[in-house]
Amino acid sequence: MNAQQLALSFAPQDLHQGEEIFQKDLVSSPGTSDTQAQAYVKHKGNHRVILTSDDITSAEINASCNCTKGKKGRLCQHVWSVILMLESMEADFLAHKTDVLTAGPEPESAASREAKMRQEAYKQKVKEQNRARRQKLKQEKKQSKFAAVTSYPVEVEEALQYFSDNGFELAQMATIEALESARKSLAKVFHPDLGGTHEESLALNHNFEVLAQFFE
């Protein structure tokens, strides 16, 4: 195997991260045959990597990973870490291999489509609620020259605004119970396994932690 040749299929960032994953011993010992290798990578989750080829003399490797990037049909750092593990084992599977291809994005399941539809419906509902709330506030401001203002740290204000934009007015009910209830409801929408994205899940967790510390 020519590792430098296979590396040309990957982005520099994925090569760097894959090397770190391999060096930290986060790759399970792969199960291999002449035409397939499978391993698990414990890096920010437990990711399954599957490598296949038409036969032992084929120059191409078809790679798939169940991480977010892999589900979009892209090569990732997890695939590269498994290739490095196979290289260290001098696995026969890598003989004659010069190119790595993706197996393509995973077909969307009916459950995933349904989850996305629920998410879009929820977002539309929140959008309509926000529009109605803004109109109500506009009318209230016309009726009064003064508005009560509560001062919070900037990060807390941003976290409160995040939950407000998603349908939860925590500034009016500043309790840890209300916060946890809001997080539980939004997790059903924003979790990657339920139709959301990794970025949306991270944003939810970040804003929850900001307010959880503030409410304590």
Q: Any descriptors?
A:
single chain; 216 residues; alpha+beta; five-stranded mixed β-sheet; 8 helices; 12% strand; elongated
What's this model, at a glance?
The chain is an alpha+beta fold. Helix content is 52%, strand content 12%.
Account of the protein in words:
The relative contact order is 0.11. The protein starts with a helix and ends with a helix. A hairpin with a 3-residue loop joins strand 1 (31-32) and strand 2. The protein has 216 residues and is an alpha+beta fold. The protein has helices spanning 3-7, 12-23, 68-71, 77-89, 110-143, 154-165, 176-190, 198-215; strands spanning 31-32, 36-42, 46-52, 60-65, 99-102. Helix 7 runs antiparallel to helix 8. It is 52% helix and 12% strand. It has 8 helices and 5 strands; from the N terminus they run H-H-E-E-E-E-H-H-E-H-H-H-H. The protein has 2 domains: 3-102, no CATH class; 110-215, no CATH class.
